[in-house]
């Protein structure tokens, strides 16, 4: 997992690694955590997966929170079945693949 250029403390890094331990899908971090000069903010993830979206999002969020009581937002999308709106939204994002 690539987390060098992401603004996370040690607790957040450990929690994220554990939360994603058995996830084989593409995982991206986005938002303010990619800006090393900023402070605060929640952790935003985008995962491309064919799994049930709500189940996967809850699983990762729950695992993360058990390790580190920080806010995490997990968006799960099926890369092969994106709507035009989802494609347009994704095109506006600054993404860093971490897994």
Fold topology:
Blueprint: H1 10-19, E1 26-30, E2 43-48, H2 53-67, E3 72-77, H3 84-91, E4 95-97
Parallel strand pairs: 2-3
Antiparallel strand pairs: 1-2, 1-4
Helix pairs in contact: 1-2
Structure description:
This protein has a four-stranded mixed beta sheet, with helices on one face. It is 33% helix and 20% strand. It has one domain: Beta Polymerase, domain 2. It is globular. The mean pLDDT is 93. It is α+β, with helices and mostly antiparallel strands and 99 residues long. The chain has helices spanning 10-19, 53-67, 84-91; strands at 26-30, 43-48, 72-77, 95-97.
Keywords, separated by commas or semicolons:
alpha+beta, four-stranded mixed β-sheet, 3 helices, Beta Polymerase, domain 2, 99 residues
Query: Which CATH architecture would you pick?
Result: 2-Layer Sandwich
- The domain tally reads 1
What's the tally of helices?
3
Average pLDDT taken over every residue = 93
Structural class, from secondary structure content? alpha+beta
- Helix percent band: 25-40%
Q: What is the CATH domain class? A: Alpha Beta
**H/E topology pattern:** HEEHEHE
Main sheet properties: 4 strands, mixed
DSSP strand tally = 4
Proportion of strand residues = 15-25%
Q: Quick one: overall form?
A: globular
Could you say what the CATH topology is called? Beta Polymerase, domain 2
Strand order of the largest sheet: 3-2-1-4
- List low-confidence stretches: none
Computed over alpha carbons, the radius of gyration is 13 Å
What gap, in angstroms, lies between the N and C termini? Answer: 5 Å
């Amino acid at each position: 997992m690539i987390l060098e250029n992401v603004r996370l403390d040690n607790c957040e890094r450990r929690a994220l690694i554990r939360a994603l331990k058995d996830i084989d899908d593409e995982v991206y971090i986005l938002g303010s955590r990619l800006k090393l000069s900023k402070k605060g903010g929640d952790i935003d993830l985008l995962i491309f997966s064919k799994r049930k979206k709500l189940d996967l999002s809850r699983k990762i969020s729950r695992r993360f929170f058990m390790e580190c009581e920080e806010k995490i937002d997990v968006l799960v999308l099926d890369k092969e079945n994106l709507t035009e709106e989802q494609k347009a939204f994704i095109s506006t994002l600054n993404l860093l693949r971490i897994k």
